[in-house]
Design a protein that fits this description.
Keywords: Membrane, Transmembrane, Transmembrane helix
Largest sheet: 2 strands, antiparallel
GO cellular component, one term: plasma membrane
Membrane topology: Multi-pass membrane protein
CATH topology: A middle domain of Talin 1
Strand content: under 5%
Structural class: mainly alpha
Number of helices: 13
Shape: globular
Order of helices and strands: HHHHHEHHHHHHHEH
CATH architecture: Up-down Bundle
CATH class: Mainly Alpha
Strand order of the largest sheet: 1-2
Helix content: over 70%
Subcellular location: Membrane
Organism: Nocardioides islandensis
Number of strands: 2
Length: 371
């Protein structure tokens, strides 16, 4: 009887009910233009679904361990990001040729500056230094730099097409190269040098850890499988509800006088919210390496999975695909790279390092509003 009561209580928890409720709300509102009151309700449900996704992602991460746990959330959220970009490019009422570039670059800037910056500040609050594995984190940053250069910087300097676009052959090369680079990194992270991406000794203390793997003891297989299913439901609901809200987002951006490119920033913020919360919570538990795995993993997955998928989607899309960054964006990316390298190389960081990354993100957001 007690066991049955525990199972019933588990199923009645808000983290279990929210993904289902969000999916029902999505089914009821899909393809419609909601009124203001309904849009507010959708926004509340969307926020709750994001928080539920974070919870279930952490359960799965505890079950599979690092670095697989970080990959689960990074890949899952990136798949949702791809679906959202393609959906908006197909159904968008305005020119969407730059939507993929704006969204991917926003995801990169939010990940390598926002998530990294917050994680370092939170992780260093109590101990004054955030400690992590420089070898693994350096490999992650190097992969992000390579992917960003291949797909977002080079189109600005190629001459086959007149604008900041790749030709069909160049786009195919960039897509294949990006996917291969990402897969090489995943192999390095999960097989060849897995120890480089694990929390460093003494980083996470004060948590139950009977198996001494640097993490709280994992849940059982049944709990992890249930959370995996609910995570998928929650993420699908998040992107679906974000799509329902997207016309209001576009109208809101236009109403307050922001450039249309700022829509990409809003989409990236919505999509990366689960990873951001997970990373900050991990940093607060002194697992900064996990936070950095999430941050850089999100950035490289956003490029390494999104660009190849968008490249294939261009076969059916009418609008051209503009990938080349503008001059201001390239400068911000270069500064992010320099500061990121100086942060990663020592293997430990002060709150100042996190503050520098957050300052770069603030500059990016401000210049996205007033270019």
């Amino acid at each position: 009887m007690a066991a049955r009561t525990d199972v019933r209580a588990r199923w009645l928890q808000w983290t279990t009910l929210t993904p289902v409720v969000a999916l029902v709300v999505l089914a009821a509102t899909w393809g419609r233009e909601p009124a203001a009151v309904i849009a507010f309700v959708i926004a509340v449900v969307l926020t709750a679904a994001v928080l539920a996704a974070v919870h279930h992602a952490e359960v799965v991460a505890h079950r599979v361990g690092e670095p697989f746990g970080s990959l689960v959330l990074a890949v899952a959220v990136t798949v949702i990001e791809v679906a959202l970009i393609v959906t908006l490019m197909v159904s968008g009422s305005k020119d969407t040729s730059e939507l993929a570039r704006d969204t991917v670059f926003a995801a990169v800037m939010i990940s390598v500056n926002g998530i990294v910056g917050l994680s370092l500040v939170v992780g260093a609050l109590r101990t004054k230094l955030a400690v992590f594995n420089a070898e693994g984190t350096g490999s992650s940053l190097a992969t992000v730099i390579t992917l960003a250069t291949l797909t977002l910087v080079l189109p600005r300097f190629t001459t086959t097409e007149p604008g900041p676009e790749f030709s069909a052959g160049q786009l195919a090369f960039a897509a294949v190269a990006s996917l291969l680079v990402y897969l090489m990194f995943v192999f390095t992270q999960t097989v060849q040098h897995r120890d480089f991406f694990l929390p460093v000794e003494g980083e996470a203390q004060g948590v139950p850890d009977d198996d001494h793997d640097g993490h709280a003891d994992p849940p059982d297989n049944r709990t992890a499988l249930v959370s995996l299913g609910l995570l998928v439901v929650a993420l699908v609901s998040v992107v679906g509800l974000a799509k329902v809200e997207s016309p209001l987002i576009e109208d809101g951006v236009k109403a307050i006088g922001f450039p249309h490119a700022f829509v990409g920033v809003v989409i990236a913020l919505l999509v990366l919210l689960p990873e951001s919360i997970s990373a900050v919570r991990a940093a607060s538990r002194r697992k900064v390496q996990t936070s950095l795995n999430l941050a850089y993993g999100s950035a490289m997955a956003s490029i390494g999975l999104t660009i190849p998928t968008i490249a294939v989607a261009t076969i059916w899309l009418d609008d051209p695909l503009t990938l080349g960054l503008g001059e201001t964006q390239i400068v911000l990316l270069l500064v992010s790279v320099i500061v990121g390298v100086l942060t990663v190389v020592p293997g430990r960081a002060k709150p100042l390092n996190g503050g520098l990354h957050l300052a770069i993100l603030a500059a990016y957001v401000f210049l996205s509003i007033t270019p």
